[in-house]
What we know:
Layout lengths: L6 H30 L2 H10 L1 H16 L5 H10 L7 E4 L5 H5 L4 E5 L7 E3 L12 E7 L7 H11 E12 L6 H10 L2 E7 L5 E8 L22
Parallel strand pairs: 1-2, 1-4, 2-3, 4-5
Antiparallel strand pairs: 5-7, 6-7
Helix pairs in contact: 1-3, 2-3
Bound molecules: S-adenosyl-L-homocysteine (SAH).
Amino acid sequence: EAAPEPRSGRSAALRARMEERLLGARFRYLNQQLYTGSSQDAARLFRADPAAFHLYHRGFERQVQRWPERPVQRIVRYLRRRPASLVVADFGCGDCTLAASVKNQVHCFDLVPLSPRVTVCDMAKVPLAAESVDVAVFCLALMGTNLQEILGEANRVLKLGGILMVAEVASRFEDTRAFLKAMSHLGFRSVSKDLSSSYFYVLEFTKTGPARPGPAVGLRLRPCLYKRR
Ligand code: SAH
C-alpha cells in the first residue's frame, strides 16, 4: 500500500511547477524584448541584468531541444567540408558549440560569456578589422530590429568573396524573395538555400562588395515568439 505523499512533498512539487511556469513566462518576455528591440537595447538589457541572460539561455536550450536537429549542426557540417584554414566569426555564439566543434579559428561574439571563448560585445560592433574573416555566421542570432546595421557589420569584417551563413527560424521569413533582394543591396549574393527543415532555413551568401547606402527594402524578419505551453 503506497504511503500518502507527505504534505511537504506535495507543496515542494507545487512550488517546482510554479517556478517552472514563472521561468517560462520570463523567458517568453525576454525573448519578445530581444526580437522587438535593437541589438543595442539587448546589450543594455543583459548588461543591467546578467541573470536574465542565463534565464534566456535556459529557455532557448529547452526550445531547440524540441527540434529534430540543432541548426548549428548544419553549420558545423558545412565548415567541416571546407578548409580548416578559413577564419570564422560567430555572431551571437551562445555556448560556442560551433567553435568547439570545428578546427577553424572562430571568433565568438555574444552579450554575456557563457564560455571563456566569448568576446563580449554587441554584434552590431565587433572588435575585428575590416575584411579579416572568411566566414560570418548568424545561427538563430538575427534578433535585433537593426538588421541592416548588424549585417552591415558582417559585410565590413568579411573578405571579398567571403561566406555569410544564416540559419533562422523558418516562420520568421515573410517574403524570402524580398529578403534576398535586400541582402543583395547589402552586398551579399545568395549562393544556396536549404529549406528542407520545417523548423529553420539555412541560407548561404557570398560577399560581392560593400553594402550599398540607403535602406535595404524588404530586410524584414518576423519576431520569433513562443507560445505558452
Ligand atoms: N548561435 C547559437 C546561439 C543562438 S541564441 C546557437 O545556435 O546555439 C542567440 C544568441 O544571440 C544568444 O546567445 C544571444 O545572447 C545572442 N545575441 C542576441 N543579441 C545579440 C547582440 N546584440 N550582440 C551579441 N549577441 C547577441
